[in-house]
Amino acid sequence: MKDHNLNDKVIVITGGAGLIGRAFVQGCAEKGARVIIADVDEKEGQRLVKDVKGKTGNNEIIFIRCDINNKDNIDGLIKAVIMKYGVIDALVNNAYPRNRNYGKRFEDVRYEDFCENININLGGLFLVTKEIADVMKKQKKGNIINIASIYGVFAPDFEVYKGTKMTMPIEYSAIKGAVVNMTRYLASYLGKYNIRVNAISPGGVFNNQPPGFVKRYSKKVVLGNRMAGTDDICGVLAFLLSDQAGYITGQNIIVDGGWSL
């Protein structure tokens, strides 16, 4: 059985300069993909291009500044990629835009902030997906992978946040739950164009959270009693991007080490 080879596949990764995005970019580059980092953080994006090229020897890594809520940005992204490669094989919807008031406890969330965060996140995912899906329809092939979350499927355990300034924002659960169902909708709608649409729902990813939180969260994890690392998610992404997953669509793959059992 062949490895999850991504040689020469043209893959657009939104939010590619973020924590998980960086791992996705490097993982795809290691497997021979042509990777487009679509992000608003130009400084970090350009730094990532240089870093990944150096680590992988893959020179087909480019950064294109793109706000997924800006149609002109998206049109520019598409034009640049098609001009360079002639095709977009895959879109990884990894960006997670939010406003400055995001992340508050339920009691402190203002209606206006709730609506804005839903709009810029789901609205952005909708917009970039719609525009790139139009390209894929003309190609008669494509692959879209949405990054959801276990909190889009299961209720948060608020006990793990005790003693910290952290919480699980209600916007996050609403957004990620919608991403899971949008995945099913898009898989059903776009299947006739030979476009696959799947989602990945990671569990908690370690990002230097407070030790108390990490300990309480990890107690619920069956495999290794630890939070996920970015590498734990990259393997699933590589599989879904590969031709080996060519008969899989409309699925939400949960990667949580058994947290949800």
Search tags:
alpha/beta; seven-stranded parallel β-sheet; 43% helix; 261 residues; Rossmann fold
> What is the averaged pLDDT score?
96
- The CATH class label is Alpha Beta
Rounded to an integer in angstroms, the radius of gyration calculated over CA atoms is 18 Å
State the separation between the terminal residues, measured CA to CA: 30 Å
Corresponding CATH superfamily:
NAD(P)-binding Rossmann-like Domain
Number of helices: 7
Morphology call? globular
Main sheet overview? 7 strands, parallel
For the record, the count of structural domains works out to 1
Give me the secondary-structure category: alpha/beta
Could you walk me through the main structural features you see in this protein, from its secondary elements to its overall organization?
- The protein has 261 residues and is of the alpha/beta class.
- It has a single domain, classed as NAD(P)-binding Rossmann-like Domain (Rossmann fold, 3-Layer(aba) Sandwich), CATH 3.40.50.
- The protein is built from 7 helices and 7 strands.
- The chain has helices at 19-30, 42-56, 71-85, 111-139, 170-190, 211-218, 230-241, and strands at 10-14, 34-39, 61-65, 90-93, 142-147, 195-202, 252-255.
- Strands 3-2-1-4-5-6-7 form a 7-stranded parallel β-sheet, sandwiched between helices.
- Helix 1 packs parallel to helix 2 and helix 1 packs across helix 7.
- The longest helix is centred in the middle third of the chain and has 29 residues, at 111-139.
- The two termini are 30 Å apart.
- The mean pLDDT is 96.
